[in-house]
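Hi Y.,

Following your request, here is the sequence exactly as I used it, all 466 residues.
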Amino acid sequence: MRDLLFGTPTVVAAGVDVFSDALRAQGADVHDVDWRPPGLGDPADLATLALDRRRAAANRTAVERVMAAGSRLVDVRPARDVLGLPDRTLLHAGPPIGWDDASGPLRGALIGACLFEGWASTVEEAERLLASGGIALDPCHHHRAVGPMAGVTSPSMWTWCLEDPVTGGRAFCNLNEGLGKVLRMGAYNDEVLARLRWMRDVLGPVLQAAVRSMADPLDVKAVLAQMLQMGDEGHNRNRAGSLMTLRELSPAVVEVDAPSSDIAAVLRFIGGNEHFFLNLGMPTAKLALDAARDVPGSTMVTVMSRNGTEFGIQTAGTGDRWFTGPANTPVGLFLGDYGPDDANPDIGDSAIMETYGVGGFTMAAAPAIVRFVGGTVPDALATTERMYQLTLAENPAMQVPILGFRGSPTGIDVLAVARTGWLPQINTGMAGRVAGTGQVGAGLVQPPRECFEQALAALAAEARVA
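Below is the corresponding structure, written out as C-alpha cells. Let me know if you'd prefer a different format.
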C-alpha cells in the first residue's frame, strides 16, 4: 500500500482522451487501451440514426402515446366473432411460422386446438391435417390479439375484449387456463381438452354475462398499476392482480342467471389461478403499444414476441415489419425432475409486458419472483436499473416502490440497445420441448441480437431516404 501511495503511478486508461491527457500533464505513466462497449449492428447505421433529426420528436410522440393509453374490459366474446376467424384458422404467438418449422409446444397446442374444435378425432389425424396445410396459421399480433406461450387461439375460444378510452382501439386475448398441463404449454391430453370445453361452455358465457352487467367497466390499467405496489411484476407473478380481478368481478358473477354449481366452479377456477390476470395484462400492453404504431422516425420497439423457433420484434418507425432471429432458451428453475434438456426455446406473446415496461423490467417491484424464475433479489434490482438505460421514458402510472416509486422503464429504444450492447430482460415460463409435455419450469431470457441488428439497419435505411 505504501508503494502505491508514494510511488509513481502507472495508469491504464480506456475511453476518451481527456482523462489520459490530464494524467500525463501531471507526469503519470499512462497506457491507453482502445476499448469500446460491444454495441450491435453497423456503426454507420447507428450514426445515421443518432443524427436523424426526426428521432427525438418521433420517440417523444410514440412513448407519450404508450403512457397515455388506457385499458377497460368491455366484453367477453368468442374469437370467431371479434377476430373474424374463419373456420379452420388458428392464431399463434410470435412472428409468422408454418407447421414444418413449428416447435414441439406450438405443435402440441395446434394439435390440441384441432381436437378441441372437432376438426380431427385423433392426434394423428390432426397432424396430417396441419402438415397438409388444411389449417391456416397466422400470428395473433396480425389480429390485434396476443396469446401467452404457444398463444394458440381457435374460433370457439372465448376472448377478453379490451378498449382504450383514449384512441378507441381494441385488443383481445384468450382466457387463461392455469398452470401445468395446459394447451398454451403444448399439452393436449383429455384433461386439457375437458378444461377447454368447460371454459367454452361455462366460463366464457358466465364471464360475458358478468362483464356486460357491470355498471362501470373494469379499469385493467389501474389494476396493473396497483399490482406493482403489491409485489407483482405483471408477467410471471400475478397473484395480487388476479385476486383484485376476482374481487371486482365476483359481485357481477354471483348475480349471473346460471346454475349455482356453475357459478361456484367459475369463482373457484379464478381464485385458484394465480395467472388469471396475465391474459388481461397482455392486451392492456397491446393497446398501449398499438397506439404508438406508424410513427416515422421513431426507434421505439412496439412488439417483442416468440413462436418457440424464432423471436421477432417490430418498431414504431417500421410498422408491421418483423425482424427475427433464433429464439434463445430460458435459464431458470425447473419443475420436478425436468432439466435444461427438457426446455424448449423461448415462446409466447407475453413479452408484450416487457415491451410495455413491466414484467422483467419491473422485477425490482417483485423480489419474490426470483423464487420462481431464478436469480437473487439483488439481481432483480439490478435488472430494473439496467433497463432504464435502454428505454426512452419512465411511466408514472407504473411505479416501482423500492426505487422510491420511480416510474417503470418504458419504451425500448433500438438505438440505445445498439449503443450499449445490452438486451432487454424477459422473465417467462418454460414449455417442454416435446409436444404434449406442458410446463417444465420458468426462467429468464433475452432476445437474440439479430432482431435489433436488423431493426437498426431497416430504421437507418428509412432515415436515409426520409
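The longest strand covers residues 391-400.

Thanks again,
Q.
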